[in-house]
Description:
alpha/beta, 7 helices, Rossmann fold, globular
Amino acid sequence: MSFLDMAQVSYTYPGWPAVVDRVDWRIAQGEFHCLVGRSGCGKTTLLKLAAGLLQPSAGMIRLQGVPHTRPGPELGFVFQSPTLLEWRTVLDNVLLPLSLRHPPTPQDVARARELLSLMGLLALQHHYPRHLSGGQQSRVAIARALVGEPAMLLLDEPFAALDAITREDLQDDLLALCRLRQTTVFFVTHDISEAVYLADRVAVMAGGRICQDLPVALPRPRGRDVRYSPAFNALCAQLRSGMDAGGEGAS
Length: 251
């Protein structure tokens, strides 16, 4: 049974053509799936449907075999912007999802500090977001999403605004954390090379539909040398062809 199962899922805003059009997509437990596509193709809407933030106009979404109707603690989110609270310290920002449900316990604080340590930020736990670089803020956002130990992590182009070297470092950090915790991941990006480096499987979306579904048979764990291998470049070229064939996508 799939962990996340989308069957013939569509979504339409009133008065507009379907933004997501009869999508079938399945993610198994512990897998890392990426979705790529041109701007406006519907990929962020599909992510919101997977998160339970939107409900499909047609079709069915199941999470762990149960109809998925709303966000819950089994899901963690990382958005395009880190969206940290400027008046809270790094540690308090990481603890925020738990603080909204109950006063953080010593175990919660220990888990947050462990995540900050894994992200190389423990020494900055009492700093405020204004003291952090863009990459550091993104690491805090990832730690915040994982502090509740979600079974699935959903990310919407979280590294798009960062420089190339920082982005690659964060990709490695994310892979290491998700492998450590066996987290299932649904990652939206417009960056083909990022998708190939991260994913077990990549889908190309165009015009609200999945037009290509590509397994990524690259060895794990993945290191910097993978990015320059012939197999990596061939997969990137194959996905680019799929995006070109898909056209400009939906508005």
